[in-house]
Amino acid sequence: MKPKQILGLDLGSCTFKMVLLELQDSTWILRQARLSELPVQAEPNVRVAALKSMLDGIDLAHMSEVVSVVDDPFTCVHRVVTPPMPAGELANAIRWELQRFLAVPPEETAVEYQSLGQTEVDGLKKQKFLAVALPASAIREHLSFLAQAGVRPTQLVPKAAALNIWLKRVQSLKDTGPVALLEVGGSGCEFIVVENGYPVFARKIPGGAAELTHEMTGVLMTEQGQVSLTEAEAETLKRSVGIPQGDTAEIVVKGVSRMQIFSLIRGILERLAVETERSLAFYGESGGQGNVAELLLVGGGAHLRGLAQWLQERLGVRVTTAAPFGGIEVPPGILQGAVSAMSLS
For the chain, which end, N or C, has fewer CB atoms within 10 Å of the first or last residue's CB respectively? Predict the structure, then answer.
């Protein structure tokens, strides 16, 4: 009998990620992991070609499951409470309850929900659900894009749900308080809070690793005169230096010091810290079940040197960078290139 194989796709605006997992004797084994970095605002034909190239040699027809992450800025994740009612009426009732949180008309959204059991409100028993709403147009566009590369997914998963599935695999969530995740992607960040194994709060944060690189190309004055880094030089420096620490007067490239690099990226870092702090506050105001004591960083940008320490000092909570493949067996030689630098999450 052929082992169960699952292909996972996360197709961001700047980075495509693919993992092939195989289940053997109750153990998940990483068989392949690929990453493709794309230009900012790449043309549709370039994106399709990149996806086809990443899937080269993958036997899609014999996958047990093909799961693709849908990442849309108008995704809504929220807890909903309703009176007891017949199952046939629930979908419309939940969509109605969600409407004040939606950025698109309720009738143009696709809604999925999961029971969280019963609760009591003013002495009356009610049903509690975790609901996720996605714009129907985003789903159609995502399916259309996949079809151009010959991919027919068996399941579409919102970004927040995908991060939650990963968290369950790498960390036990039983009898723990709420845990926050911050995915630092190429074009933006995703903040979610997990309670008792469920993603109960999600918020998009603008900016990302690509913007950080772009800011590092600003003009600086050095002993050699005006200097600016190319995008390639800035990306290399970002990965090797990260958030400058230690001797900030040290010259790192083209007569530019660590302090000058920090001056270019400080604005983005401060904004990230402020928006993350706001996200924690919004979660508390939305009826969270306690204070978040830990923030896990995931995504390619999460591995920026010094980022965890930077956020921890400003947020007052423990911040750690998560191991992308925790809980999965990784045979030798599987992780290569950008993937070996832990760019996947």
Answer: N
